[in-house]
């Protein structure tokens, strides 16, 4: 069995004195897509933010490639891509400018590569339009263009299908499968039905034995 990219042992998180999950353990192997599922408020976003290093209100152990994640935070952050449930783009900037900003401090890419990514998410003709003038789905697509130029092996995607039409959902599903086939791994939360074979599951909101 290959070494897990990410491993969680005994995760516990409480918010506002309410226990969201405890004894939560799972291994994310290379080549896999895993869905975090559970009802509204069960802690899916919270879990993804913990995994992304954006929430420190938890206990337990997290390892990255067999080593404690927080002792190798720099390597982890370099190899992990997190897209949150808000598109996280700046309304006054154009799609191209947003994508440049999203890539800042990551892999330097020229505008041709960025324009190609925007075209790949169906934004041809809108590259230079301020994002505040785009539809909700188009704004989401600006953020999703990041997936087309991502070299990070681990993707953490929180509700990224929101406002995306059926053909867009299909295109993103292909990207997730491709990342897995390339030896990466994807953890995704969504209320959409996904059509992905062999998808792993982490189920929250089922009581103290939460586990995949
Ligand atoms: N900023 C916050 N401060 C305090 N509690 C919060 C905060 N954000 C969320 N919570 C609480 O944490 C719990 C889990 O929220 P979370 O957003 O992780 O759930 P979720 O499973 O992603 O929900 P949904 O399916 O509705 O997106 C909820 O009960 C919520 O009230």
UniProtKB/TrEMBL annotation:
<keyword id="KW-0378">Hydrolase</keyword>
<keyword id="KW-1278">Translocase</keyword>
<dbReference type="InterPro" id="IPR005895">
    <property type="entry name" value="ABC_transptr_haem_export_CcmA"/>
</dbReference>
<dbReference type="InterPro" id="IPR017871">
    <property type="entry name" value="ABC_transporter-like_CS"/>
</dbReference>
<dbReference type="GO" id="GO:0017004">
    <property type="term" value="P:cytochrome complex assembly"/>
</dbReference>
<keyword id="KW-0067">ATP-binding</keyword>
<protein>
    <submittedName>
        <fullName>Cytochrome c biogenesis ATP-binding export protein CcmA</fullName>
        <ecNumber>3.6.3.41</ecNumber>
    </submittedName>
</protein>
<keyword id="KW-0201">Cytochrome c-type biogenesis</keyword>
<dbReference type="Pfam" id="PF00005">
    <property type="entry name" value="ABC_tran"/>
</dbReference>
<dbReference type="GO" id="GO:0005524">
    <property type="term" value="F:ATP binding"/>
</dbReference>
<dbReference type="InterPro" id="IPR003593">
    <property type="entry name" value="AAA+_ATPase"/>
</dbReference>
<feature type="domain" description="ABC transporter">
    <location>
        <begin position="6"/>
        <end position="212"/>
    </location>
</feature>
<dbReference type="GO" id="GO:0022857">
    <property type="term" value="F:transmembrane transporter activity"/>
</dbReference>
<dbReference type="GO" id="GO:0016887">
    <property type="term" value="F:ATP hydrolysis activity"/>
</dbReference>
<keyword id="KW-0547">Nucleotide-binding</keyword>
<dbReference type="InterPro" id="IPR003439">
    <property type="entry name" value="ABC_transporter-like_ATP-bd"/>
</dbReference>
<dbReference type="InterPro" id="IPR027417">
    <property type="entry name" value="P-loop_NTPase"/>
</dbReference>
<keyword id="KW-0472">Membrane</keyword>
<keyword id="KW-0813">Transport</keyword>
